[in-house]
Amino acid sequence: MINVEDLHKSFGKLEVLKGITTSIEEGEVVAIIGPSGSGKSTFLRCLNLLEIPTSGKIWINNQEVTDKKTNIMKIRQDVGMVFQHFHLFPHKTALENLTYAPMKVRGMSKQEADKLGQELLEKVGLANKASEYPTRLSGGQKQRVAIARALAMNPEVMLFDEPTSALDPEMVKEVLEVMKSLAHTGMTMAIVTHEMGFAREVADRVLFLDGGVLVEDAPPAEFFTNPKSGRAKEFLEKML
Amino acid sequence: MNLDFTSILPSLPYILKGIGITLQIVLLAGLLGFALGIIIALFKISSVKLLKWFSDAYTSIFRGTPLILQLALIYYGSPQIFGFQIEPFAAAVLSFSLNSGAYISEIIRAGILAVDKGQREAAMALGIPYKRMMWDIILPQAMKNILPALMNEFITLTKESAIVSTIAITDIMRRAYIVGGHQYRFFEPLIFAGLIYYVLVMTLTLIGKAVERRMRRSD
Ligand SMILES: Nc1ncnc2c1ncn2[C@@H]1O[C@H](COP(=O)(O)OP(=O)(O)OP(=O)(O)O)[C@@H](O)[C@H]1O
Ligand SMILES: [Mg+2]
């Protein structure tokens, strides 16, 4: 599904990703963890080209997205992304947030889009919030709308960058529940998270990044009980 | 003091008729300047060097020289530049549009940059093309923030429009002069003109506040 080969990314002189090679299979849920500044967000953002890699190659569905001839817009339409701070469109209602891109980008009719939007809002438990503006929603509700908005484009992969880090503790669960049920539908997911319990329970694999290097790549059972590297051990001791 | 407001009473309707002319110029120039301002603002934030350079130079020149000079250049210079004498009204609208376009572009540019960067990223992540993102996502949010500044610019335009009297347009100001000339008393008609401008500006201010309240509905 996703293949990454020797991915490098620098911001000026600062090399943030130092050659990452990995792959994500279809339907797989991968948790990406690591200390702050290790390059987790940058890695994720390279996958949908919000950051342009300095070198290296990325394929999604056998299409090389790092190829200059590839239509970046088309790739992004098929890769959903959920941000730490939601970034809902504040001048649009919850439903309009969902229907905008399908209508304007996919050319869906308003009727179709509204129907799809309502279904998705229902899926994330917010059917009754369709006509609310984002400022009237709680953090957890905003993030669920944001997830639904990404799903409305019917993406092949979903990327999450610390989706619960900006939430009050009592709202974390509702968002994780939505993600969990999404994982059960067979969606391919890459999730940067500090929720170790969630990673352990839901992820098929854990990628541990440190200093721009992919230090470990293992199933959660193995990673959490028996990390190979000293750095991962140290990190887990601090987290757990 | 030698003041006699009753003497200009018969001329009040004549001065009041200037409101229509002043408003026509201000509204037209305001709309055109706004459209121009959006385009120049988009040039300013574009990654094309030439567009950036052009828009910066444009703003710099129109803000760096007196409006009355720009008006005079267009009106009195038109036979040399266009090959014919343009109408005073057209010269007024043209110079005011070009001038306010420069100011408005700065306001809009600042408004666009003040929109949370995350909005752009969210739009990009959805694969929304640049143009659509600007029109549907970024500009509407920018407009909300800059409405007070835009209203200010519009008010400035209303007041500054009095200089069109220098090219023989019979706006409020010019009419006050004419009445003054007839009666050999300038103070009273000018005070009356001032009152009209003040009422216009206050009305605009109130309209601006009302529009702002409406736009804040989603907050
Ligand atoms: N646009 C940018 N310009 C310059 N430096 C950047 C940029 N984005 C990220 N960086 C730097 O790259 C490094 C890695 O950042 P990144 O956001 O990928 O880390 P992270 O693992 O997601 O950290 P966190 O857990 O704090 O979110 C940091 O040192 C950061 O300051
Ligand atoms: Mg991060």
The main pleated sheet of chain A reads as: 6 strands, mixed
| Poorly predicted sequence stretches spanning 5 or more consecutive residues of chain B | none
Enumerate how many helices of chain B there are, as a single number.
Answer: 9
Biggest pleated sheet of chain B: none
Average pLDDT confidence of chain A is 94
Ligand set? adenosine-5'-triphosphate, magnesium ion
How far is the N terminus from the C terminus of chain B?
Answer: 55 Å
The CATH superfamily of chain B appears as MetI-like
Report the strand count of chain B: 0
> What is the general shape of chain B?
flat
- Based on CA atoms alone, the radius of gyration of chain B comes out at 21 Å
Level of helix content of chain A?
25-40%
Total count of helical runs of at least 4 residues of chain A: 9
Number of DSSP strand runs of chain A = 10
Q: Which structural class is indicated by helix and strand composition of chain A?
A: alpha/beta
Placed side by side, the strands forming the largest sheet of chain A appear as 6-7-8-3-9-10
Name of the top-level CATH class of chain B:
Mainly Alpha
What is the H/E string of chain A? Answer: EEEHEEHEHHHEHEHEEHH
List keywords for this structure.
heterodimer; A: 240 residues; alpha/beta; six-stranded mixed sheet; four-stranded antiparallel sheet; 9 helices; 25% strand; B: 219 residues; mainly alpha; MetI-like fold; flat; binds adenosine-5'-triphosphate; binds magnesium ion
